[in-house]
Design goal:
Elements (H helix, E strand, L loop, with lengths): L7 H22 L1 H4 L2 H19 L13 H4 L1 H11 L2 H27 L5 H11 L2 H5 L2 H5 L13 H28 L6 H9 L3 H29 L2 H24 L1
Helix pairs in contact: 1-5, 3-5, 3-6, 6-7, 7-10, 10-12, 10-13, 11-12
Length: about 260
């Protein structure tokens, strides 16, 4: 559902890529590691090393597999994606996947040793640890769609807004739809509890405000998308539209899955 127009072989690899997040993330959510920041940092660093080795330009067969299955299981996935990618698309995926790994690990540590963050701080943090950016970086593998470097978020304001709002819509929808389950498990660093805490809102008022925020985010996304279309050349317009259609599929998949 996340990549509805890709081929069967690619879809299998993409499904493995997405499924990999769950056992990897469970390891740092587990209580045995929660109170040990040094172990979380080591886990992060060793994961990034395998990501870089499997996807990077200096790729070579492993002399020895990593002993942790949650880390080692990325090797075959990364190797498969690397074989179809380019230096640029593979590096983009390395950068985004490494940023996710770093953010997810540091968020776990900060959650245990910091005060409740503001809603804006929370949304900013979740932009990188919800894993939407690595999935957006897989557009080349899924559809053979690679947008020019000058149109990537690091270089283009409209695309930066688009990435930000897609990540925020995914975060807020996820939080609203999984709120009951997260509260039952004692996880209160989420959109609704934080709005209740900082804004003195009741549960329903916080939920209502959350839905309004999703609509506001969508309107910012839509405006940036239309402005981007006016900015790109006719030569790149089809590629950009195909890329953004793939990004929208990811957000719709998240809603259907939840």
């Amino acid at each position: 559902m996340a990549y509805p127009r890709t081929g069967r072989t690619e879809l299998l690899t993409l499904a493995k890529f997405i499924a990999w997040y769950f056992p990897w993330d469970d390891a740092i959510d587990d209580a045995s590691m929660m109170q040990q920041p040094d172990d979380i940092i080591r886990y992060k660093n060793e994961t990034i090393s395998v990501i870089q080795q499997s996807l990077g330009p200096d790729h070579r067969p492993q002399s020895e597999p990593h002993p942790n299955p949650a880390i080692q299981s990325f090797w075959d996935i990364g190797t498969e994606i690397r074989a179809k990618g380019t230096l640029e698309t593979n590096q983009l995926l390395i950068d985004q996947q490494s940023a996710f790994i770093t953010s997810a690990a540091l968020s776990q540590i900060e959650r245990e040793y910091s005060h409740p963050v503001t809603v804006e701080e929370y949304l900013k943090r979740r932009e990188t640890n919800i894993a939407i950016y690595p999935l957006m970086a897989l557009s080349y593998y899924a559809y053979n769609v690679a947008i020019p470097t000058e149109l990537l978020p690091a270089s283009n304001t409209h695309m930066r807004i688009i990435w930000t709002e897609l990540a925020r819509m995914g975060t807020m929808a996820n939080d609203l739809l999984s709120m009951r389950r997260e509260v039952m498990h004692g996880q209160f660093e989420s959109l609704v509890p934080l709005m209740m805490y900082h804004n003195d809102l009741g549960v329903q008022a916080a939920v209502d405000r959350g839905t309004e925020m999703i609509h506001e985010s969508y309107h910012r996304f839509d405006q940036a998308e239309q402005e981007l279309y006016h900015e790109v050349s006719s030569e790149n317009l089809g590629t950009v539209k195909a890329y953004l259609a793939a990004c929208k599929d990811l957000i719709m998949c998240n809603l259907h899955w939840r």
